[in-house]
């Protein structure tokens, strides 16, 4: 197994995690990932990268069952407007591809927010940094290593 940037960063900081690989077809959706892991969708989180009207990037981590509320996110990030980054810009911006984007180990450190639904969970899953790889980690460890702000960022 070749270690990803996310795994190397966790190892360097001596953060405990479990690395899980699974087979993937063409469907890299979060719902499919949760199904492959045989896990509740409330515990599997997706990493979404946005760009603001001021051309700043912000990262949001939300359960795969939920939808990001871009208006709430813009307010929390302190900008007028946010939109999802174009998929063609994802690799050059983060170092990760669609379906393998992790909040851990991006090539540039962006202000990152995680939905408050992660609180009071013993563990959550986030991408391990490539398609077909997930990291099972305590939310508080993820928040600490990535300097993440907890906020209400999902659509109600």
What does this structure look like?
This protein has about 160 residues and is of the alpha/beta class. About 25% of the residues lie in helices and about 25% in strands. It contains 5 helices and 8 strands; from the N terminus they run αβαββαβαβββαβ. The chain has helices spanning about 5-10, 30-35, 70-75, 85-95, 140-145, and strands spanning about 20, 45-50, 55-65, 80-85, 110-115, 125, 135, 150. A 5-stranded mixed sheet has the order 4-2-3-5-8. A 3-stranded antiparallel sheet has the order 1-7-6. The longest helix has 8 residues, at about 5-10. The chain is globular, with a radius of gyration of 14 Å. Belongs to the prolyl-tRNA editing family. YbaK/EbsC subfamily. This is Cys-tRNA(Pro)/Cys-tRNA(Cys) deacylase. Its EC number is 4.2.-.-. Pfam families: tRNA_edit. InterPro entries: Prolyl-tRNA_editing_YbaK/EbsC, YbaK/aa-tRNA-synt-asso_dom_sf, YbaK/aa-tRNA-synth-assoc-dom.
How would you briefly describe this protein structure?
The protein has 156 residues and is of the alpha/beta class.
Rg over alpha carbons: 14 Å
Give the helix/strand class: alpha/beta
Largest sheet: 5 strands, mixed
| Strand order within the widest beta sheet | 4-2-3-5-8
| SSE arrangement, N to C | HEHEEHEHEEEHE
Mean pLDDT: 93
Low-confidence stretches: none
Distance between the termini: 39 Å
Shape: globular
Count of beta strands: 8
Helical run tally: 5
Q: Percentage of helical residues?
A: 25-40%
InterPro entries: Prolyl-tRNA_editing_YbaK/EbsC, YbaK/aa-tRNA-synt-asso_dom_sf, YbaK/aa-tRNA-synth-assoc-dom
Domain YbaK/aminoacyl-tRNA synthetase-associated: 31-144
Protein name: Cys-tRNA(Pro)/Cys-tRNA(Cys) deacylase
EC number: 4.2.-.-
């Amino acid at each position: 197994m070749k270690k990803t940037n996310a795994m190397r960063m966790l190892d360097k900081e001596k953060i405990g995690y479990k690395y899980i690989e699974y087979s993937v077809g063409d469907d890299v959706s979060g719902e499919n990932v949760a199904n492959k892991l045989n896990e509740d969708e409330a515990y599997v989180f997706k990493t979404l990268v946005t760009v603001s009207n001021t051309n700043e990037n912000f990262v949001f981590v939300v359960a795969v069952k939920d939808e990001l509320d871009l208006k709430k996110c813009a307010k929390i990030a302190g900008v007028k407007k946010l939109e999802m980054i174009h998929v063609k810009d994802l690799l050059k911006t983060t170092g990760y591809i669609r379906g393998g984007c992790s909040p851990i180990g991006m090539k540039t450190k962006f202000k990152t927010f995680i939905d408050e639904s992660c609180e009071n969970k013993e563990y959550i899953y986030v991408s391990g940094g490539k398609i077909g790889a997930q990291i099972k980690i305590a939310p508080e460890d993820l928040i600490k290593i990535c300097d993440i702000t907890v906020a209400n960022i999902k659509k109600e």
